[in-house]
Amino acid sequence: MIISSWNVNSVRARIENIKSYLLKYKPDIVMMQEIKTEDINFPYDEFSSMDYESHVFGQKSYNGVAIISKHKLKNIRTDLIKDKLKQSRIISAEVEFKKKVIQLINIYTPNGNPVDTEKYDYKKNWLDSLIKQLKNLSKKNENIILAGDFNIIPSAEDVYNVKSFEDDALYRLEIRKKLREMINLGFSDVYRHFNEDKEGYTFWDYMRGAWQKNNGMRIDHFLASNSILDNIKSVNINKDPRGREKPSDHTPIEIKLA
DNA sequence: ATGGTCGACGTTCGA
After folding, report:
1. Which residues of chain A (200-229) touch nucleic strand B at CB < 7 A?
2. Fewest C-beta atoms under 10 Å: which of A6, A32, A166, A251?
3. Is pLDDT at A141 greater than 90 in this prediction?
4. Which bases in strand B are touched by protein, i.e. have an atom under 7 Å from a CB?
């Protein structure tokens, strides 16, 4: 089973790019972020005609997350985080795999820039709320896959020019520590589990020819409960969609379960 | 040097 996470930067603007990806790589489940639309305008029919069911937590113009799946998903939840601003940034669902119920949690963490503003505080509070919830959920179900756009660069080797990011909301020590807190609850950064020091960028800005110059960063992640690591056979950052026409600024990261 | 580029119920904001 292939599970993919992809910040699509508008599901409607990206629909042809997404369909090409689904046709070519046939992921079983895609956890999407930044769909940038209300539920009512989500392209349900496009995906159902390709045998995907859709579960959507949308929002007008900004944010929004969704999970599309070829397998039946259960217990869809969008209430896992107390969000003062009521932004649509988290959706979870359960999928059964080899007699195990795996809880899939799809997140779009606030960007947090510029630092030392209410935006930065919102990111910190949002992450604190997520950590608290993860702690609770881990007690109930030891099989959790948390994926999405974390807007966190884990380490210096995960960004093209660390000097310019030292005081950025994606890399500040305080923010990296929150990722560490999550991992310390009993999770692994799946990409780093399989790749000790290999570059694994998932995002390249539209500006300044970042893609052509490979000025990227690794901010889209899969965290998996250590108890299900044995079921994860591989991880792949699929750079194909980023190089196509009308790309998102992010590219999908995929894990294979068996 | 505050540029550059995307997307959205856009004439500006968020990334």
Report:
1. 206-208
2. A166
3. no
4. 4-9, 14-15
Query: CB of A144 within 8 A of CB of A224?
Result: yes
pLDDT digits 0-9 by tens, A206-238: 999 999 999 999 999 999 999 999 999 999 999
Task: Check residue A225 and give its pLDDT.
Answer: 98
Q: Are A160 and A216 in contact (CB under 8 A)?
A: yes
Can you tell me the distance from the alpha carbon of A134 to that of A142, in angstroms, rounded to the nearest whole number?
Answer: 10
Round to a whole number and report the distance in Å from the CA of A60 to the C1' of B9: 9
* Partners of A224 in beta bridges: A145, A188
**Measured CA A210 to C1' B12 distance, in angstroms:** 24
**Can you read off the two tokens belonging to residue A186?**
């009993």
What phi and psi, each to the nearest 5 degrees, are found at residue A191?
-60, -45
Residue A16 has pLDDT above 90, yes or no: yes
Instruction: Check whether residue A132 has its CB closer than 7 Å to nucleic acid strand B.
Output: no
Nucleic strand B near CB of residue A10 (< 7 Å): yes
